[in-house]
Amino acid sequence: MLMGYMTSQYRKVAPARLEQREAQRHPVLLGKATVRNHTKLPLEASLVDLSVYGCRVLIDGGINVGDRIWLRLAGSQPITATAVWAEGNRLGCKFDEMLDRALFRQLTLQNC
User: Fold this and answer.
1) Where in this chain does the record put each PilZ domain (predicted)?
2) How far is CA 64 from CA 4, 70, 96, in A?
């Protein structure tokens, strides 16, 4: 019994992964974003943060977790995504395809 304890006390434990994102999110504050799913009119939203794989927006309801959505960020072409989490008026979205680097730079530099 004691032997099991002796061997396990020296085993290294990997740290917990608190952040499971593929890419770092960058803070942005952009009021000209719209979100829409296939059955509704576009809803006004504010882009809060952004990575090349997804974003977080502030929106007053209308979108549910799992919804397929289209985002327009600062007049961009529609970006297809999936709503992956929602908490209050915050909505986390994962883009279907990696965001164009030029658009990413444009959106993150507007915050400087």
Assistant:
1) 19-105
2) 48, 13, 17
Place of tokens 């290294």: 12
Q: Could you list the mean pLDDT of each consecutive 10-residue stretch along the chain, which spans 112 residues? A: 52 49 67 83 91 94 93 91 96 96 84 52
CA 3 to chain centre: 47
DSSP per residue over 4-59, as a string?
HHHHHTT---PPP-S---SS--EEEEEEEEEEEETTS--EEEEEEEE-SSEEEEEE
Q: Is 79 in contact with 70 (CB distance < 8 Å)?
A: yes
Residue type, 104: F
Full set of structural domains in the chain with CATH: 25-100 (2.40.10.220)
H-run or E-run covering 85: strand 79-87
- Cα(32)–Cα(65) distance, integer angstroms: 22
Q: β-pairing, 54-59 with 79-87?
A: unpaired
